[in-house]
Specification:
The protein is α+β, with helices and mostly antiparallel strands. The protein has eight helices and 13 strands. The chain folds into two domains: about 120 residues, Trna Endonuclease, Chain: A, domain 1 (3-Layer(aba) Sandwich); about 100 residues, 2-Layer Sandwich (Beta Polymerase, domain 2), CATH 3.30.460.
Length: about 260
């Protein structure tokens, strides 16, 4: 039986409801988070890659697949590729006037994504949350949040393996009268704060919540506030690495700050 991938699922939901903005957002969120395999003309040379380019009536497109097997099926056998996340691929294509042919002819999620949609995805994923300072007056259970946001948070945090021990979603009242919701991370790794805050921001964006806001905070497990967070909040457990493994060699597309160079 042919494997149905997460991208197949969200693509099917988007196709079934073409006017549903939330379904379309979920597709682009999954595209950004997925590992993709970009078809190359030949093996990468350091940071330089030479993707296959296809000229179609709708523009110029690169080909990428969400499984190696699908790439091989399209190519008719083994072929050179570069593996990278959808967000890195979008960053690489930004400003190039290139679209993305995803899973072309080999999967239910076969789709042509035009250059302007790639530009939008890169801009959306590149948005960084702002930093503010506020003093907490009281915490209370979260209320009024849509299921789409809770699902998006659960999915995002499941991909943040080992970056923190857990997170609590709570309602919060700040000194001065401000109210909102806070996603409080416990035991975040040093240097992981920006990645976790960005994951929370993307969950809010791609859940389709209009004009929503979600604050993010970081606390040590021994902080006095932890007991209140546990009593009042909705808990999200982040997956933890089973064991420490040696770092793999850096491959083209693995560093979001150094996307591969098109040749």
């Amino acid at each position: 039986m042919t494997e149905i991938t997460p991208l197949d699922d969200v693509h099917a939901a988007m196709q079934a409801a073409p006017t549903d903005d939330a379904a379309r957002l979920r597709f682009y969120e999954r595209l950004g988070d997925s590992e993709l395999f970009l078809l190359l003309k030949h093996e990468a040379e350091g940071d330089d890659i030479s993707p296959e380019l296809f000229d179609l009536d709708a523009g110029r497109f690169l080909l990428a697949f969400d499984r190696e097997e699908r790439l091989s099926q399209f190519a008719g056998g083994a072929a050179a590729y570069a593996a990278m996340s959808g967000r890195i691929l979008a960053r690489m294509l930004a400003g190039q006037q290139l679209g993305l042919a995803l899973n072309l002819e080999v999967a239910p999620s076969s789709i042509l994504i035009p250059a302007d949609a790639i530009e939008w995805l890169d801009h959306t994923l590149g948005h960084a949350p702002s930093q503010i300072e506020a003093r907490i007056e009281a915490l209370h259970p979260p209320t009024g949040l849509p299921e789409s946001l809770l699902t998006a948070l659960d999915t995002k945090l499941a991909n943040a393996r080992g970056l923190a021990s857990c997170a609590y979603l709570v309602g919060v009242t700040y000194r001065g009268g401000g109210r909102g919701h806070l996603l409080a991370f416990l035991g975040a790794l040093e240097g992981a704060e920006s990645a976790l805050a960005k994951a929370a921001s993307e969950a809010l964006t791609f859940s389709g919540v209009a004009a929503g806001a979600l604050d993010v905070g970081f606390f040590a497990p021994a902080d006095p506030i932890t007991a209140t967070l546990a009593a009042q909040g909705l808990r999200f457990d982040l997956p933890q690495p089973a064991r420490e493994e040696p770092a793999p060699p850096i491959a083209p597309g693995s560093d979001p700050d150094r996307p591969p160079i098109l040749r």
